[in-house]
Amino acid sequence: MTESAASGLSLVVMGTGPFVVPTLEALLTSRHRVVAVVTRPDRVARGRRPPPNPTRDAATKAGLPVLAPADVNAAEVRAELATLQPDLFVVCDYGQILSAETLAIPPLGGINLHGSLLPRHRGAAPVQWAILSGDATTGISVIHMTPALDAGNVITTRATPIGPRETAAELEPRLAALGVPAVLEAIETLQQYVPQAASGEPVAAGMPQDAATATRAPRLSKQDGQANWTEPAAALDRRRRALEPWPRLTAFVRQSGGDLRRLVLEETEVLSPAAESAAPGTIVAADAAGFVVACGGGSRLAVRRVVPEGRRSMTAAEFLRGSSLRVGLQLADPPGAGDTARSAR
Question: What is the model's pTM?
Fold first, then answer.
């Protein structure tokens, strides 16, 4: 424990995506000291630019040392982290699970800012799965970390309703901002344990999670964005909102030559069920507002805006004017349709 811990803690922040950036920026103006930032290394395919790394960009702008180890738990990396003499790790959207040996480097261990109300939606995509699952409310949790994924004691939480039309792209920055005061509160809570940690006693802050009520939020894939028209329209609309900005909800249109073309469904609306149902995937109406697709259980989904493959975003009515889609025609099954997309859990 550093000598000046009474006035502020020495922190190492670990993250990669944008979720941790507001917290990092707040910590830089707090009484605590960020001594380094740890992020994932770039994995670049030949001929392609590195993927965005907002955490690294924010750290570089602030003039902070940046570490990007392939394995944060490697012995040489642990030794390098130990030389920084951190009191606490602050982790969010990092991408690697810290081992018990790594978490033991700071006397106070580590805290993790997670984008759900744990134990609900443990995993890599909590924001998306909250929408996919139809949750009315979500939030953030700050946990005292253990080597198990998102399973540590909960130090503090913040809750917020999910808007009926809100996308993951809109919800995620709201949750990131909600996490800033929660992380600062959690650090203040842990600072009370400084004397205990300095004496070598284990620190156990927060309340244990109820593992029996835990749900999973696994990483999403492109396949999760393939529209399965046997799903109810409400589930498809949630899928569209949850998968914005990636991989997005995608339908498939069969061209006159038999080729499949992707069609991103950018804006949708759930309609009341029709008096007479049609086979899922059938175009049942089309007008100046767009087109309507029959979905599972007699439900209907109106498509208002689309992005045809290789083209710009446009209204669904614009798309229909240059498309072969007509009332009564069927949207095509996706490639590998036997592999159904994951349902919300």
Answer: 0.92
